[in-house]
Design a protein that fits this description.
By secondary structure, the protein is α+β, with helices and mostly antiparallel strands. The chain contains four helices and eight strands; from the N terminus they run βααββββαβββα. A hairpin with a 2-residue loop joins strand 6 and strand 7.
């Protein structure tokens, strides 16, 4: 379940790894992030059997959960659910207003 080096989780990974399995099935508002951004999963998230290092990648201007070659669980299960993705250091292109950039990203 450990995330890649340079990533953080909320709750802290050390706390998650010490939790009983039953508690890991109901992590409220789980967050994973790094220097490039974060992903907050809404509601309770089941992290049992989830390999964060393999499934979550956050890079400059990009976030990916369940790479294309990975089998995804049904929508709403594990990490395949509604989430807020926040990417840092994204600036509008020259001549593009911040509002236009935001509309493009939605």
């Amino acid at each position: 379940m450990r995330p890649k080096t340079g990533y953080y989780t909320e709750p802290l990974f050390e706390i998650l790894s010490a939790m009983p399995v039953e508690e890991c099935k109901r992590i409220p508002n789980f967050v994973i992030g790094n220097e490039f951004g974060s992903i907050e999963f809404f509601g309770e998230t089941d992290l049992t059997g989830v390999n964060l290092a393999e499934l979550v990648t956050i890079r400059h201007k990009e976030a990916e959960v369940y790479p294309a070659e990975t089998l995804k669980p049904s929508f709403g299960a594990k990490l395949n659910k509604a989430a807020l993705i926040t990417l840092y250091d994204i600036k509008p292109k020259k001549g593009q207003s911040p509002e236009d950039k935001e509309a493009h990203l939605r």
